[in-house]
Amino acid sequence: MGLSSDPETHALANALARTPVSGVGKIARLTVLGTVFCILLSLMGGYLLLLSGGFTPFEQNVVLAILVPTVIAVPLLAIIGYRGEQIGHLRRELTRQTTYDALTSCLRASVFSSLIDRRKALSPGEERRGAFMIIHAGGLRSIQRSHGFDRGSEMLRFVGEAIRGSVRETDMVGRVNTADFGVFLPGATTEDAQNVGERIRARISA
Question: What pTM, to 2 d.p., does this model score?
């Protein structure tokens, strides 16, 4: 299974693709303008220091060596840092939306199955052992027919929260179908899985 085709995911991907400055012409203009600004700033500072007459040539060089980089570097680094944070945020959000189901916050089916396959590929031993459960959200279709799709979505969200709240942080929970959730409990026994199932049932019934 491939990545999600959700409109939000596509919008994030497009925004991420547009984030870097595009076009050689634009980059060239910014480079030329920045260089000209630096030269003018240096000349202006040298001229003002020369008019003041209160500095020796060495002191003038020291002032210019501190002033020019400071005026240029502070805003430039601030802009670079801000843009970098924007790109990082977009990447994290894109990763989250392609990893987790938007409705239930459980792993997407493709990601869940990929993680299970990786675990199967491990060498035989304790790391491969575990319990696998399929939890079916029964009654979804009847709720959708009787109360609408929004109420059905609320039900799925509630079931997903109940499952995630009943397992360990190291356990994997994925939405593998419209109304089916897969749960893998690494290192768990059949008895452990039964206990987890009862916890989930109690949370949903509460």
Answer: 0.59
